[in-house]
Amino acid sequence: MNASHDHSSLLERLTSDPEKNIHIIVKYAAEAIQTPCCLYNRYDQDKHIIFTPACIGLPPDFGGALRPEGSICYEKTLNSEGCIVAIEDLSATSYVKRDPIIKQNGFRSYLGCSVTIGGKVWGSLCVLDTKKRKFDQIHVRTITGLSKALSLEEERNQYRNALRQRLEWEKMLVDISTIAISIEGEKSFIDGCIERMQKTIDVEGIFIWKHNPVADTVSVLSEWIIEGHISQKDELQDIPTSMFPWGMGLMRQNKLMEYEDIEEVPEGHEKQIMRAMGVKSILMIPLFVNEEFYGTFGFEVYSHHRKWLDEDIYILRTVSQIITKAIEHHIAEKSLEEANQELEQRVKERTKELEGKQKELEKMNKMLMETNRALSALASYMERNKKETERHVARSINNRLMPIVKRLSKERLASRQRADVDLLASQLGELARGLEKAKDIPSMLSPAEARIAAMIKNGLSARDIARQLSISVETVKTHRRNIRKKLGLQNKDISLATYLHTKWEG
After folding, report:
1. What are the structural domain ranges in the chain?
2. What residues have CB less than 8 Å from 108, skipping those under 6 apart?
3. Residue 122, Cβ neighbours under 10 Å: how many?
4. Structure pTM?
C-alpha cells in the first residue's frame, strides 16, 4: 500500500465534524505506522494540563488528563517547536519512571510530532510501541503529515467552537434581555442574571458589589461560586471604600480591573483579599446607574490563570449595560408608582376634605336659610309693630297733645310763651302728618308678595327664595315685578333690595 493510496483512504473516511475526524486520524496513524498505541494530546496552557481527546490502545479507565511535568509529550514534543521526536528505547530515559502512561503500560519506543495552530503549539500526535523500534523516514513523513491534518481539524474545531460559543453568548444576552423586560425586584433580577451567566461564561465566580453612597461602603449583593469553593459573602458586607483606594479609584473612573494573574495587582488590601479568596485571575467592570456609581461586576477564576479576550470583555460589558439600564428603568417605574400612589392618596385626602367642607357648607346654608326665614318673620313683625307704633303716636298727638296745645294757645300768654306754644304746635302737627304719610309697605302688598319682599330685603337671591318656598324662579321674578310696580319703582336702576332696606327698616 503506497503513501498516495493511504492518503486517499484517509480522505474518504473524513467527515464534516472535526472532533470525529481527530479520532479518525489517530486511528489511521496507528494503522499506518502499525503500532499498538497512538494518542493525540492537547495542552491547555491556561489550566496547565494535558488531556487526551483521542487515543488507540490505552485502557478504558485511562483518565485522559495529566499534569504536564514528567510527560514525554510535553517535555519533548510540545517543546520541540515542530521537530520530530523519535526514541528507539525508552528504557534508556527517565520517562519509564516519570511518565505515567509509559510506566503503567510498559511502552519501549516513542515517535511524536507537535500539532500547531497559527504557529502556536496546540498539542502532539504520538505513537508508542511495547517493543524497541526504530522509526524510518516513511513513519516520520506519515506522522508529520497526519500532524498537519490534525492542525487543520483543530483549526476547524476552534472556529466551530468559537461560533458555537458566540451563539451561546448571544443566546445568553437574549435571555438576560428578556429577564430585564420586567423586574419584580432589583436583587431577584440580578440573581437571575448571574444564574443565567454561570451556565455560559467560563469563570468560577461571579459577583455583584453594590455601593452604599450614604455610608460610602460596598457589599456583595449577589454571587455565584463554583462548587467546592467557599463563599465569603457574609464577611464581605459594609466594607468601607477607603480600604480599597486603588480599586475604587479605577471603578469610580469607569475603568476596568483586568488581570490574568493577580500577582500583577499593586500591593494593597485589594490584593490581600484576592489572595485570601484564592483568586488567580480577575475581571471587574464598573456599574453606573443614572450616571451615579452603583457598584462593580466581578468575574473570578481560582483554578488557573485566564486571559481575558477582547470579545469576552465586550460581551460582559454589554451584559453590565443591560443590567444597569434595566435597574434604571426599574427605579423610574418604582418612583412613578410611588408618585402615583402619593397623588392618589392626596386626591383621596383632598376629596375627603372637600366632601367635609361641602357637608359643612350645606349645613351652614341650611342654617342660613332657617335664619333668613326667622329674620323674615321677625322683620315682618317688627315692621308691623313699627307701623302700629307710628299710628299710635300719631293718634296720641292728634287726640291728646294737640287739644292741650290748642287750649294753651287760647290762654292769655306772654309773647315769648305764645311763640313757644306756636312752635310746639307746629312741630307736633308736622310730626303727626309725617307719621300718617309714612308708607306701610307690608300693607301695600299681598301676603305672598310681603313674604318675598322680606326675603329680598334680607339678601336672598331668586334661586334661594324659589328653593325655600318650593316655587319656580320665574314665579319669584313675577312677584318681584309686581312688588316694584306697587311701590312705584319704575326706574330699573333702583335696586329693590336697597329700596326695601331704606324704606322698610328693622
Report:
1. 3-164, 182-308, 440-506
2. 89, 90, 91, 129, 130, 131, 132, 133
3. 19
4. 0.57
